[in-house]
């Protein structure tokens, strides 16, 4: 499946550890898909934790603040992976002590590897994460398609219903930077839908990791962008009302209220 899709460009220095990691996971979790998924989700949270840590460090040292908003996106990505982990635990993927020991120690090791990568080059770290997330899309997609009939007969775990169909989807929208807020509302009628949704989530992570590597793309929080647009519309409406009221009452300051200048000022934040 991986060979059939568009490949993510990456240097050999990233490709070699990526291929080695995939081989180790395939070997250790052969014919054990749920423990494999639980391991992947335990480790998958670490990139976003490491990126937030490094962004905090750079801000604290006064080196860099222009990417401050992306911390919100990375937190929402970690929150998404955390719920994938809870789903796999609900399905029994963490039953073996050996699996838990390996996954938890691998996660700590992976955190420091990504910190070192980020120190060397944020683009390299994001590139490696894109490789891993794309692999997750393939893994979940292959399992979903191979077991479609069985999965459609099984009910979804409660945590999946709470995450995908709950009332508060703020963080669910937050990590999907390639689409507008509220444009994706997954259905969760059975276990097949759950795995399909997780695969789609991983694809959204791939898109965000690609954007983080592109210096021409500003990665913005979808919720923050919507809030700025709403504030701009509100400010424009309030200014227009003030202008009309001032004109009706004959106030002299109405002539100094420049709506165009106000909108141009607000647009700088968009």
Q: Can you describe this structure?
A:
The structure is a single chain. The protein contains 12 helices and no strands. Helix 11 runs antiparallel to helix 12. The two termini are 39 Å apart. The chain has 270 residues and is mainly alpha-helical. It is globular, with a radius of gyration of 23 Å.
Number of strands: 0
- Based on helices, strands and strand pairing, what is the structural class? mainly alpha
Radius of gyration: 23 Å
Order of helices and strands: HHHHHHHHHHHH
Mean pLDDT, nearest integer?
82
Shape: globular
Separate helix tally = 12
Range of helix content: over 70%
Q: What kind of sheet is the major sheet? A: none
Approximately what portion of the residues adopt beta-strand conformation? under 5%
Poorly predicted ranges: 224-232
Oligomeric composition of the shown chains? single chain
Distance between the termini: 39 Å
TL;DR of this structure?
The protein has 270 residues and is an all-alpha fold. Helix content is 71%, strand content 0%. Helix 1 packs parallel to helix 6 (122-146), helix 2 (33-44) packs parallel to helix 5 (97-120) and helix 3 (46-60) packs parallel to helix 5 (97-120).
